[in-house]
Amino acid sequence: MLKTSVNYHQLSAMRRIDEFRLYYNHTIHPELIRMEKERKRLLFLLALSALAIAIITVVLLFFKAALFGFFLVMPFGFYISYLLYRIQEFRQKFKPNVINLILDFIDNSVNYGTLKYDGKRMIDKKRFLASQIFKTPAPQYTGEDHISGKVGELNFELSELNVREYSKVRSRLNYVFRGIFLYAKLNREMRGEILILPREFKQYLSKTIRAFNLRDGEPVEEQTLSVEFEKYFMSYATYDAETSACLSRDMQHTIVSYRKKTGKEIYVSFIKNEIYIAITEPKDILEPYIFSSNVSFELIYEFFEEIYLLMSIVEDFDKSH
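and the corresponding structure tokens:
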């Protein structure tokens, strides 16, 4: 039975990759090529202007005409400033263009409503702290790339977050969380609370575990969890929590498979009728390169896969309720 389930998940993942690659080739790749031409043209003009300034400067220094050179070089300086502005503009429009195309692919599924993207918004700080995952005052809290929509009957929102707090040992800010954070709310009231934490980060989560224990949280019974899931994650629940509904075998398999494939840590909490999911991400996702090509299926698929994982957990939960 387990082997059949694993094969089903593998076939589903392969089919998802094939479908997305087809969409990438027909829709996303042409847009990347168009923006790649713009990137190369801007770099060429920038390099040409810098070379012209260098040549003029050398010639004028040779003839000791520095003052005259200043007036000659100044227009090139203004032009370079304009090109740098255009490059910044290119950076700012690259991500929205690509993300909106990815979301168009996702919300074509019958179980998804229209997905909306706002590059400047983020998940509210109070909502982040309500997850009970990270026990911190979060004095430095920033974020971007807000996506909202509907999965089945569940409304959700997610965004990139960068959360830091002051170190008690050194005079610096330490990372609390950097990655993608999702919030969804059920249409019915759920009992209890459940917390799923990465086992590898146990030493950094003592405050979280201690606080959850004070809320009557205890380790989840072994028979509810797979051996492989327990290898990577610690699970706690209050006595009245609906563990069998929240920790389905399919969801355990999805989370473990993603953890093994990417090495990224995943945090999940169910607080009554609210769901919170956090995935660590060490770099800014889909930030465009300036001095190298952005035409890469792997670059685009990494973002798609991360968003898809979050939504598939929410979708699985929606189907079971």
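(Above: one complete record from the training split.) Residues 2-106 form one domain.
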